[in-house]
Design brief:
By secondary structure, the chain is an alpha/beta fold. The protein has 21 helices and 29 strands. Strands 5-4-17-16-18-19-20 form a seven-stranded mixed sheet, with helices on both faces. A seven-stranded mixed sheet has the order 12-11-8-6-7-14-15, with helices on both faces. Helix 8 (175-185) crosses helix 9. The two termini are 31 Å apart. 5'-O-[(S)-ethoxy(hydroxy)phosphoryl]adenosine is lined by residues 268, 314-316, 391-394, 416-421, 442, 505-507, 519, 522, 528, 533. Residues 538-619 form the AMP-binding enzyme C-terminal domain.
């Protein structure tokens, strides 16, 4: 399962990068973060986190900062009580900021809406009352399957307010993917929209919900927001948002929940076909989301306009659109659509229109902007931008430099933030104004966080050495398990370095000579396509569920734009027919994967092969397939059960060209 870190990885060339960019004196002088933060955290970690928790409003204060006696299940701020939604909304109104814009929402077709904190409070209260009217309360699960409309955020906060867990499912996932996530979490309610705008056109969304709900008996009701006004089929479970929610009272008294009260489940791909329901709780999660958002982005709530381009379907949208920013009283842009609608300058139009000062995006999008050309951002006034962020995959130095020069005016610090759905919030990142940044490196654990690069034996490697990234101290926003599967939680994250008690992140990493950390990509069977985690097994199961496919092996091959691209090798069934390997049939297979998982999982390339390379124990040697997919000379084949297989594959591909 585990490859050696960085193996066959084009990212190795990152390590020759040696430029550094020290913060300007002006930036350093006004920065939220100061060098002393590192010292303070080192001197007393728990006291440090207790101080960060004071950023929030607690109805009842905790009596213990950390209880790690049930490791690997942590409890943070034990005995404390708070309401997460109150912290993100009401307290800002109570402190006199009700008229501050919380969300500048920008619809893809050009419609927009400015939502103040006072209005947000009313909307979230109405939605919370609506949930209560349906009998949804503490510990119930609510699936949210929506595009980036304001109601998606209201819905998440309404769940938090009444103590229900939201399970947000990315709107690009298929009905089947939605069904498994609803079923695994036994959601009682689904919140969705009639349709969504994608690349300038309305596309239906509700039919996928209908299909999923038909196979998910736990669902009692479906709330539907009208967004595109497309015709939708109606079932007796369905109720319109505007009919149910708009008639509710806009007053709602939030109840304080235990610090360890569950907040949400978010499914993410693991190394097996079944997605993992990552569970997060309240007090620790919100503390770290708030703390990191404040220091990593240097947020000044009175003057900044922040924009995170993620979708709420991913953890970045949870922690850096909803919980971190709103707990910090941000003014932020939320954009509904694609970056090239109506043209490739859309993001820069938005930056200009709202005076965005902090911009957080993914390397895959930066590389896409590069491809579209520097003349596009050059036509816009981007001088409001003062901090730039990157997340989701390693950022190559060329893209980093391009981002700095063409978007950041050659001076905005870039924060390359490493974290995961499981970590809940940023773990490794330079602090702007304190750390001299380096193109391509996430650099160092944040104050209060313990991260190391270790070898196979769990021993820390010396500077210049490579190995596996581990987290060696519990952190407040760490996952509290995998929904309904305690064993899988222990196995996946805590068994690899059991003796040391380290959390195994699944990423390869390296120290440079200064001791800064460089992430090298996944070391397990998880691919990273445009910053989205997709497991090879998931795509393989989708392929073999097609009647023409006998066997499939999937690898992530490096891709200039998306980081990795999905390349599949399939063996067709005997009776599949002569056309089964033709262009039409391959297209059908790609569409089949999109239907089973979602368009993001569509293989870039599918190659029909007579055999797959396997070891004597029957394990597919993906390393060799990756060599083929990346057009390299095939590596060592001596452990293959039949070493002629690779010749057969190569010969077949040659003749097929
Ligand atoms: C990768 C996204 C390098 C990594 C927040 C991790 C990164 C996985 C970075 C988590 C980064 C994320 N540099 N790699 N700055 N950020 N990754 O759960 O492989 O969708 O394990 O969370 O993305 O993906 P997830």
């Amino acid at each position: 399962m585990t490859q050696s870190p960085g193996q066959g990885n084009a990212l190795d060339n990152l390590l020759t990068e040696s430029r550094t960019f020290p913060p300007s004196d002006e930036f350093a002088a006004q920065a939220n973060a100061q060098p002393a933060l590192y010292e303070e955290a080192k001197a007393d970690r728990e006291a440090f986190w207790a101080k960060q928790a004071e950023r929030l409003h607690w109805e009842t204060k905790w009596d213990q900062v950390l209880d790690w006696s049930g490791a690997p299940f942590a409890k943070w701020f034990v005995g404390g009580k708070l309401n997460v939604a109150y912290n993100c909304v009401d307290r800002h109104v109570e402190s006199g900021h009700g008229e501050q814009v919380a969300i500048h929402w920008e619809g893809e077709p050009g419609d927009s809406r400015a939502i103040t904190y006072a209005e947000l409070q009313r909307e979230v209260s109405k939605a919370a009352n609506a949930l209560t009217s349906l009998g949804i309360g503490a510990e119930d699960r609510v699936a949210i399957y929506m595009p980036m409309v304001p109601e998606a955020i209201f819905a998440m906060l309404a769940c938090a307010r009444v103590g229900a867990l939201h399970n947000v499912v990315f709107g690009g996932f298929s009905a089947e993917a939605l069904r498994t996530r609803i079923q695994d979490s036994e959601a009682r309610l689904v919140i969705t929209t009639d349709g969504q705008y994608r690349r300038g056109n309305p596309a239906p969304l509700k039919p996928a919900v209908d299909e999923a709900v038909a196979g998910a008996p736990s669902v009692e009701k479906v709330i539907v927001v009208k967004r595109t006004d497309t015709e939708v089929a109606w079932t007796d479970k369905d109720v319109w948002w505007h009919e149910l929610v708009d008639s509710q009272s806009d007053q709602h008294t939030p109840e304080a929940f235990d610090s360890e009260h569950p907040l949400f489940i978010l499914y993410t791909s693991g190394t097996t076909g079944k997605p993992k329901g990552i569970l997060h709780t309240s007090g620790g999660y919100l503390t770290q989301a708030s703390y990191t958002h404040n220091y990593v982005f240097d947020l000044k709530p009175d003057t900044d306009v922040y924009w995170c381009t993620a979708d709420i379907g991913w953890v970045t949208g949870h922690s850096y659109i909803v919980y971190g920013p709103l707990s910090n009283r941000v003014t932020q842009v939320v954009y509904e659509g694609t970056p090239n609608t109506p043209n490739e300058g859309r993001h820069w139009d938005i930056v200009e229109k709202y005076g965005v000062s902090i911009y957080y995006t993914a390397p895959t999008l930066i590389r896409t902007f590069m491809k579209w050309g520097a003349d596009i951002p050059a036509k816009h006034d981007l001088s409001s931008l003062r901090v730039l962020g990157s997340v989701g995959e390693p950022i190559n130095p060329e893209a980093w430099i391009w981002y700095r020069e063409n978007i950041g005016g050659g001076k905005a610090p870039i924060v390359d933030t490493w974290w995961q759905t499981e970590t809940g919030a940023i773990m490794i990142s330079p602090l702007p104004g304190v750390v001299s940044t380096k193109p391509g490196s996430a650099q160092r654990p944040l104050p209060g966080i313990g991260a190391k690069v270790v070898n196979d034996e769990g021993v820390e490697v010396p500077h210049g050495g490579g190995g596996y990234l581990v987290l060696d101290e519990p952190w407040p926003s760490m996952l509290r398990g995998i929904w309904g599967d305690e064993e899988r939680y222990r196995d996946t994250y805590w068994s690899r370095f059991k003796d040391q008690g380290f959390y195994f992140a699944g990423d390869g990493a390296k120290y440079d000579n200064d001791g800064d950390i460089w992430l090298l990509g996944r070391v397990d069977d998880v691919m990273n396509v445009s910053g989205h985690r997709i497991s090879t097994t998931e795509v393989e199961s989708a392929l073999v569920s097609h009647p023409t496919v006998a066997e499939a092996a999937v690898v992530g091959a490096s891709d200039e734009t998306t980081g990795q691209g999905i390349v599949a090798f399939v063996i067709l069934r005997g009776g599949a027919g002569a056309d089964a390997g033709g262009a039409e049939a391959i297209k059908a297979l790609r569409d089949h994967v999109a239907k089973e998982i979602g368009p993001i999982a569509k293989p870039r390339q599918i190659m029909v092969v007579p055999e797959l390379p396997k070891t004597r124990s029957g394990k597919i040697m993906r390393r060799l397939l990756r060599d083929v997919a990346e057009n390299r000379t095939v590596g060592d084949v001596t452990t293959l059960a039949d070493s002629s297989v690779m010749d057969l594959i190569s010969a077949g591909l040659q003749s097929g060209k």
